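in:
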């Protein structure tokens, strides 16, 4: 593991050298975890990995309450703790020094307040964005990272397998959500990787709807989209079930989505524009006459975050590379009627082939 963190930090430092910056501040907690092995959600407190190019030093600034965990988990061992009653930017300046002209920042995550505090500490500094490089680095996942995602997939598929046995006609979406999230913890997850999406009937037409007191009734589509975090890595899987017997139209919609998912997975390989994966899946839905009911991208990157680069949409000409790991999740969502989504997780292996990581059946499963 030490070699892994050193390799990541070396690649980042080499990139920073090309920018001619004095300092780089990595503040996004998942990025701090990526480079150090230490993870915490600092909330409003200051936490950052700082790479000082002038002194060739690396610092991890953490809230004092996280110091013990950081000392045990972090690859970067020069740790500066900050107590709640002090100004963290003064501690930062006192540690680094005032002679800073150019800073590398993740511009997507630095708030205006944080930028103002930096300006108060370092007069007339300029900044360059380093977030895009970090995102591109994280996109190329090692086999070890893939194995961690696979472990999270094994857990969520076990949750799915056991969870659908808990479904009873008349229970609410919230009740089923509680059962599923209990199983996540029972089977070893740190917790859900995102707010579970458990939707039934007409609500299944809401791609990011929220479970509520609606009851799950006979004849409903039951859409379950959920994932877990295991060892810092995420899974994300969706399956759609039918309560009782399906109608001919429900069967038709389900079969179209299943074919679309298969088409997207089969298209996935190194060397193609990633947009082709979206187009391959989308064309199946369009040709079946349901194109107007699929109006979002077909997938997203998956790893330390449940949503990360690359974005798998039709206009993305980014070339698929070995190490990319992403979802393929087309759907048909008909307002007032219901919807179907089937989601797989795919890894581009060292041979450039798309390796399917999810294994839960995609055949239509009837419940009750």
């Amino acid at each position: 593991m030490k070699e892994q963190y050193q390799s990541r930090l070396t690649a980042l430092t080499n990139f920073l050298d090309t920018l001619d910056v004095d300092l780089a501040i990595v503040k996004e907690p998942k990025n701090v975890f990526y480079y150090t092995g230490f993870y915490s959600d600092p909330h409003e407190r200051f936490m950052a990995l700082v790479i000082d190019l002038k002194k060739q030093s690396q610092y991890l600034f953490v809230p004092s309450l996280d110091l013990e965990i950081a000392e045990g988990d972090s690859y970067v061992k020069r740790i500066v703790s900050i107590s709640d009653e002090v100004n963290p930017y003064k501690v930062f300046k006192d540690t680094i020094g005032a002679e800073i002209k150019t800073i590398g920042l993740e511009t997507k995550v630095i708030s205006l307040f944080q930028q103002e505090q930096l300006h108060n500490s370092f007069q007339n500094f300029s900044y360059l964005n380093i977030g895009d490089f970090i995102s591109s680095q994280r996109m190329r996942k090692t086999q070890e990272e893939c194995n961690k995602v696979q472990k999270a997939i094994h857990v969520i598929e076990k949750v799915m397998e056991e969870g659908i046995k808990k479904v009873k006609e008349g229970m609410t979406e919230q009740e089923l959500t509680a059962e599923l999230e209990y199983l996540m913890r029972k089977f070893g997850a740190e917790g859900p990787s995102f707010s579970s999406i458990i939707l039934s009937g007409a609500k299944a037409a809401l791609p990011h709807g929220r479970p509520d007191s609606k009851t799950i009734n006979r004849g409903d589509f039951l859409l379950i989209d959920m994932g877990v975090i295991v060892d810092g890595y995420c899974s994300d899987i969706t399956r759609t079930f039918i309560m009782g017997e399906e109608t001919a139209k429900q069967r038709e919609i389900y079969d179209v989505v299943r074919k679309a998912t298969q088409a997207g997975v089969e298209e996935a390989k190194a060397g193609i524009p990633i947009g082709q994966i979206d187009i391959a899946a989308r064309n199946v839905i369009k040709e079946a006459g349901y194109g107007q009911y699929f109006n979002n991208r077909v997938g997203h990157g998956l790893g330390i975050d449940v949503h990360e680069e690359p974005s798998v949409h039709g206009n993305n000409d980014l070339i698929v590379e070995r190490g990319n790991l992403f979802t393929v999740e087309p759907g048909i969502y008909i307002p007032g009627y219901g919807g179907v989504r089937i989601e797989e997780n795919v890894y581009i292996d060292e041979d450039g082939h798309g390796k399917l990581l999810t294994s839960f059946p995609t055949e239509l499963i009837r419940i009750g």
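note: The longest strand covers residues 57-63.
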